Each structure stands twice: as C-alpha cells, then as structure tokens.
Amino acid sequence: MNKIFNLMIIFTLMTFLQSKELEIGSKIPLFAVKMDQVNGNPISLKDVMGKNGLIVIFSCNTCPWVLAWEDRYNVIYKKYKDKGFDMVAINSNQGTRNSGDSMSDMKKHAKKAKYEFPYTLDEGSKLANAFGATKTPHVYLFDSNAKLVYKGAIDDNSRNPKKVEDHYLMDALDSMIEGKKISQVSTKAIGCTIKYVDN
C-alpha cells in the first residue's frame, strides 16, 4: 500500500512540474541546449536568437490544430524576420516518435508545409518541460534580453485566417517594434496535448 501511495505522490509531483508554465518576465530556459533540426544541423535557441527577440512555437506534424494554424507560421516569420525577430518550431512529442513525429516525419512535414524557419526535435521533451508547454501549438515570445513577454495562442481563429479578430502574437510583436506596452501578455493555448511519455 505504501509503495502505491509513494508512486501516486511521485506521479502527482511530475504532473505539477510539467504543468508549471514559464511566467512572463522569465528568461529562456535551456538556452544553449542543442537540438537536431530537419536540415541536419543541431542548433540551440541561443543560436537562432534574433536581434530584437525570438518566437518559439511548440508544434508537431499530426495535430489538427497545428495543421489549421501553421499557414500563419511562414507569414509571421517572413513579416518579422527583417525586423530582428527569429522563429523556431519545436517538436516535443516524445510519446509519438513512432507514430508520426519522428525526425523522418518532421523532414517530410517541413518540406510539405514549406517551412522557412528551423524545425527541431526536443529529445525527451526537455524544453517543453522547462517551458511548461502543454499544447501544440503553444507560442512563447521573448524580447532582445531573452525575457518572456507573451505566451499562448497565435490568434483567435485557427480555422479561418480571414476571420481573425485578435492577432495576439502579431499584436505583441508590433507593440515591441513600436516601443509600446503589450496589452495582452497571456492567452490560452488551444491545441493537442504534448505527448511527453515515451513509447
């Protein structure tokens, strides 16, 4: 009985640690940890940090929410790349490496979706754990000092980009460029759960 009770405590603690999301103002965790990316060159978040900031998107190949939103990935990347912001998509789905989220699958997906930014594999979901990321997609925006200034969803309409009323991420980026205070620093990330458990 004591063994079962101890296991329950450990499981509860692990769940708590996983769900403790990075707070606004926090520095980028695991900044220098290298990840394999689809082009074969390992990179860290430090390597892709833009002059004015970095957009980190926890993503994957198979989630319907990602497939609905990812047409905006390249749009955002192209619009803000020349303004000093870089972007990286991270696949932390350790539990589905053998069912759609392997590096081989990622390479095919990135080619099909015409990703122009780095797409990396988070081995063991280390970065997702450190960020407290729970969904795909789950967005984190950092300023030039590597401090978190926005987290949550890309916008308020995954299904139809023409019907978006609130461009959360782009509004935050525009506010940074204009030197204004970001009006909405946190929104609810909507998507599939990140598959932390290994097969």
Write the layout of secondary structure elements.
Elements lengths: L1 H18 L16 E2 L15 E7 L4 H6 L1 H11 L3 E7 L11 H11 L5 E3 L4 H6 L3 E2 L1 E6 L4 E5 L15 H11 L13 E2 L6
Parallel strand pairs: 2-3, 3-4
Antiparallel strand pairs: 1-4, 2-6, 5-8, 6-7
Description:
- With 199 residues, the protein is of the alpha/beta class.
- Helices cover 32% and strands 17% of the residues.
- It contains 6 helices and 8 strands, in the order H-E-E-H-H-E-H-E-H-E-E-E-H-E.
- The chain has helices at 2-19, 64-69, 71-81, 103-113, 126-131, 168-178, and strands at residues 36-37, 53-59, 85-91, 119-121, 135-136, 138-143, 148-152, 192-193.
- It has a 6-stranded mixed beta sheet, covered by helices on one side. Strands 5-8 form a two-stranded antiparallel sheet.
- It starts with a helix and ends in a 6-residue tail after the last strand.
- Mean pLDDT is 91; it is low at 3-17.
